Structures are given as structure tokens and as C-alpha cells.
Amino acid sequence: MILIWIGFFTFVLLLLALDLGVLHRKAHIVTMGEALLMSALWIALGLAFSFFVYHGYEQRWLGLGSTVDGVDDMINDGESATIKYLTGYIVEKSLSIDNIFVIAMLFGFFAVPAIYQHRVLFWGIIGALAMRAVMIVVGAALIAEFHWILYVFGGFLIITALKMFFLKSEHMDLNQNIVIRMTRRLFPVTSLYHGQHFFVRAGSPASQESQLPGSPAEPDEAVSKTKPGTLMLTPLALALVMVEATDLIFAVDSIPAIFAITADPFLVFTSNVFAMLGLRSLYFALAGMISKFKYLKPALAMVLLVVGVKMLTAKWLKEVFGEYFNFYLLGTVLMILAVGIIASLLGRPSEDGAG
Fold first, then answer.
1. 267: pLDDT confidence band, cut at 50, 70 and 90?
2. Could you tell me which residues are beta bridge partners of residue 285?
């Protein structure tokens, strides 16, 4: 089993190296066409991995499918594992869309130059994957030891869904955010962006760089008032800190959601990884169209509600729908998302006309 994990981590590292070292070696503004193409490639890769899942669990490659799934007390074969993987992937992918709403707000608040946004998202997702790996290991251990924790997760998801339905998100002054205040207290922060650097030392050549390539040099008052040699964060680092903090909050919702579907660590982690890997390109594809999908957030809340109810009633659902009840869950999730997207698209003309 350990060889499967080593192989998967190696594969992911190669993808990340290709992304940062080849495709985005030089900082540039990601165009809509490039974002759509990369989104399609990441989604295709995530879906294609289901073929590996099917054959791996069907043939029991290196121990896959050799243990009982704590959610439904079944040993996963190729078909059940594939359904669970795809359901988890789609749920995690859809919930990551809500993350995009917040990232867009963060980039707007920090006025992150478009040319550096991909860099923030890349390192943000590296940190997110590490955090989720820890949470998945802890979650799987808890479920194996205390099966009743599934009901706690289910109740939490239902409460989160109701909050998304009835509580409107308000624009907050991030200067008052506790994470930002703590970071500013621990580290001095420059007034301006210094290229694509997250850190600069006062008085170093990097601290003298212009805010944007080709722009005239501007004096950075925060740097000039700081003792030479002092390590300083740039606003780009503050944006990265908030992206990481935001993903930690979203992971608290999404990790219980995937455990409603399966407790198999390999299925949980791989579905999360492929959903997260495409988040950057999906952001650039959707960031400019977020306001046009006004019914998507209620749809995501409904997905959480359905998954939470499924977690609380799994045994009853298995008796009613049989061992393939996860297949019906997959169809329900897809239908809810489709209704949210279609309703948003159909609602646009009347809204525009009213204005």
C-alpha cells in the first residue's frame, strides 16, 4: 500500500513542477483562454484518474480495497470505489467554487497585481494540500476509532448549509482580521509590492524593485523606516497568508463532506488533490463571472445539506436503495449543481433588463 502512496505523491509533485517550472516559469497575466484550457485539462485529468481507481480496486493493486470502508462497512471493489471517488471529486470541486468567491474578494482588497495572482494561488494550494493531508489522516483515524463521529460530521454539515442559506456574507475590513493583525504584529510589512517576492530585506536590491515590471520605481516608506537587513513581508505575503487561512476554514466544511461518502484514505485524499489542483485555473476562468452565478451559492448549500443528511441516514439509505446508493447521491449532487447554474444563466437577462 505504501508504494501506491509514494507513486501518487511523486505523480502530483511532477504535475506541480511542470506547472510552476515550465508552464508558469515567468510571471504573466493568465488569460481567459489559457484558464479555460488549463481548467479543462485538470478536470480531464481528475476524471481520467477514475480509470486507475477502478482497475486498482478491482485488481487489488498493492493493497487497494483490502480494508473495510468505515462509512458503509463494505470492501470497495472497482465499481463502488469509482463511484465514491467521482462523487467525492465532484463534491470537493463544487465546494471549491465557493472558495473562489472569497479569493476574488481577497485579491481585490490587497490589490494583488494580476501578473502575480497565479504565484499566490500556487503556493496557497501547496499549503492547502499539506493541511488537508493532516486533516484527512486525523479524520480517518477518528472514524476508525469512533464511528459515531460520522454523525457529528453530518450535523456540522447541516448547520453549515443552513448558515449558507440564511446568513448573507458581508464585506469585512480585512485590516481588522485577527490573522492580518497577528501577522503584522510578528513581522514588519512593506508598503508596496516588490516584484513577485513574498519576503525582502530592508536595504537589499529586492527591496528597491518597482511594484510592477516596467513601472517607475517608487520609494517604499515602510522599507526606508526599517533597519537595513530586517526581514520584511510584502503585501503579496499577506495575501498568501489570508488565502491559506481561508482554505483552512473551507477545509473544515469540505473534509467532513468527503467523509460522508467514504472513509477510505486513498479515495478521500486523491479526490481532494485533483479537486484542488484545478482551483487556480478555475479561479482565472470564473473570477470575472462570479456575479453572474447568483444561484450557485444556494446550490452549494443544498449540496452540503444533502451530504449531511446522507451521513446521518446512511444505514437507512443503504436498506432502501441498496449498495449502490452512493450512485444516487452522485446523481443528486450533479442535478443540484446543474439547476443552480441553469437558474443563474436564465435569471441574468431579466436582471439586466430590470436595471
1. very high
2. none
Q: What pLDDT score does 354 carry?
A: 45
Closest CA to 104 of 295, 243, 252: 243
The amino acid present at 170, given as its one-letter code, is: E
When comparing pLDDT for 352 and 284, which is higher? 284
Whether the pLDDT of residue 22 is over 80: the answer is no
Task: Say what the alpha-carbon torsion angle 270, 335, 328, 316 is, to the nearest 10 degrees.
Answer: 100
Which of 121, 54, 154, 87 has the alpha carbon at shortest distance from 278?
121
Maximal CA-CA distance, the chain: 70
pLDDT at residue 317 tops 80:
no
Phi and psi at 15, nearest 5°, equal: -65, -45
Neighbours of 11 (CB within 10 A): 13
CA distances in angstroms from 116 to 14, 86, 193, 213, 308, listed in the order given: 22, 32, 10, 11, 37
Segment 193-222, tens digit of pLDDT: 888 889 988 877 776 666 666 566 666 778
Look-up of cell digits 446508493: 325
330-337: long-range pairs with CB below 8 Å, 24+: 330/83, 330/86, 330/87, 330/90, 332/306, 333/87, 333/90, 333/91, 333/94, 333/303, 333/306, 333/307, 334/90, 336/299, 336/302, 336/303, 336/306, 337/90, 337/94, 337/299, 337/303
Bridge partners of 75? 68
Backbone φ and ψ of 177, nearest 5°: -65, 135
**Is residue 193 within 8 Å of 158, Cβ to Cβ?**
no
